[in-house]
Amino acid sequence: MEKRNYKNTDLKVSLLGMGCMRLPRISPDKDDIDYDKAQEIIDYAYANGVNYFDTAYGYHSGKSELFVGHALKKYPRESFFLASKMPIWCAKEPADVEKIFYEQLEKCQTEYFDFYLFHSQNANNFKKCKEFGVYEFLSKMKAEGKIRHLGFSFHDKPEVLREICDTYTWDFAQIQLNYLDWEMQDAKQQYEILTEHGIPVIVMEPVRGGALASLCDESNEIFKAARPDKSVASWAIRYAATLPNVLTVLSGMSNMEQVVDNVGTMTNFEPLTEADYATIEKAVAVFREKNTVPCTGCRYCMDCPFGVDIPRMFALYNEYAIHKSERRYWEEYHNRPESERADKCKACGACMKQCPQHIQIPDKMKMIKELMEKFDQKFSK
Fold this sequence. Notes:
Elements (H helix, E strand, L loop, with lengths): L2 E3 L6 E3 L1 E4 L15 H13 L4 E3 L9 H9 L8 E6 L7 H14 L5 E9 L1 H9 L2 H10 L3 E8 L3 H10 L4 E5 L4 H4 L2 H10 L4 E4 L12 H10 L5 H11 L3 E6 L4 H11 L7 H15 L21 H14 L2 H10 L25 H19 L2
Parallel strand pairs: 3-4, 3-10, 4-5, 5-6, 6-7, 7-8, 8-9, 9-10
Antiparallel strand pairs: 1-2
Helix pairs in contact: 1-11, 6-8, 9-12, 10-11, 13-14, 13-15, 14-15
């Protein structure tokens, strides 16, 4: 497993990090974790050199930290790096910050976090963090040894990132970075800002919630023609890992096939060549013609007050946008409960305040609704 030193220290972090946001579930409709399958994934990752494990207070509806604490308890604490995050939106008053932090330590069955983050920072969340004295409290926890490295994860515009970098001293930062978002979501500028500030980068969503594991048939063929021996997903993992200021690349692995593939990619790691970059550009150009919605399935937009399953609606639509199978899309849409469908959207805008991708969700729901009305006339006769 390829490892990179944290700054100028002897701490060696695995280039592949285990994201614990999309662990295998007992039921696809619930966030309950399948402990046996998830433990197999953790054990395989650990046995093959992965030593960075990333969880958060809200992952799997609060169950991820509990599982991670259970799963890693069997291993020597000094043999891995554990990361979690402060969800400022869960704090109603400053005192809640301390309560949440100590609850996380207890759930993770640990006395300290190696890497701890202000979760999902944007202009509003950062403002609340300042008002609640989060940096001051977490700096105290760092001084007491309960946090080893303090950073933040980020979802906003580059100018907000500059403000955050200039306001406090940070040990690291986590951003969404992949070859689609390099330009589309300003990942390039974000990476450069962090590099200018000497802040190591941790990458999230390198495969864009699984979307880059299979773009479309035409794009997939471009990748396969260039490297028949490699998966489509491996190109996205290598893209992020090739950047020199990247410390680790997080992948939310939900089955053994994914973890085996990703471990293989990061073992005897091959940085991208100029020819590889040209291959990616060619595949992306084809994919962009498919007119997909840039949803990663993170579910930050949920729960919708009117019951719409927003990520599911986008996933179904993107499948249609790529493959153009009208009847299949129509059937799968109507197989979903009526309460979860796009036509239940009331355009309240609550979801947009939480969307890291800044998707115009009500507009997209209206588009899906109108498309489905067209298909209803076509197929329900």
